[in-house]
Amino acid sequence: MPERYVEIIWPDGEQETCYSPSSVIEQYLISGQRYRLPEFLAIANKSLSAASERVRKKYGYACSSAMDQLKKINNKATQYKEADDLYVVVVRIR
Fold first, then answer.
1. Which of 7, 12, 21, 57 could form a cystine bridge with 63, CB 3.0-4.6 A?
2. What are phi and psi of 63, to 5 degrees?
3. CA–CA distance, 26 with 6 (Å, rounded to integer)
4. What strand order describes the sheet that includes 4-9?
């Protein structure tokens, strides 16, 4: 599987590199795009679940790293109160 790393900037300016076990993430997120936080969370959930499912189809088991990354993203997002007015920027996908 061609893994990808997604560099993002959270609404508070914190930068983070997120892991995807599959290039399928590129079908969901665009480098240089900014997403409202709720939209980003929905996309992260859908894309990392799809990436994990790709691993399951190829190797017979889900990708725990993808699910760990999704949990980390969702935990970080809970610190923001006014989520509709906040954005996450996808700096690049590598």
1. 21
2. -90, 110
3. 9
4. 15-20, 4-9, 87-93, 34-36
Local confidence pLDDT in tens for the 94 residues of the chain? 689 999 999 999 999 999 999 999 999 999 999 999 999 999 999 999 999 999 999 999 999 999 999 999 999 999 998 777 899 999 999 9
> Can you give the pTM of this predicted structure?
0.91
Residue 81 belongs to domain spanning: 4-93
DSSP 25-67: GGGT--TT-EEEHHHHHHHHHHHHHHHHHHHHHHHSS--HHHH
**What's the burial of 51, exposed, middle or buried (CB within 10 Å: 0-12/13-18/19+)?**
buried
The domain total for the chain is 1
Q: Which residue has the tokens 């079908």?
A: 27
Beta pairing, strands 34-36 & 15-20: unpaired
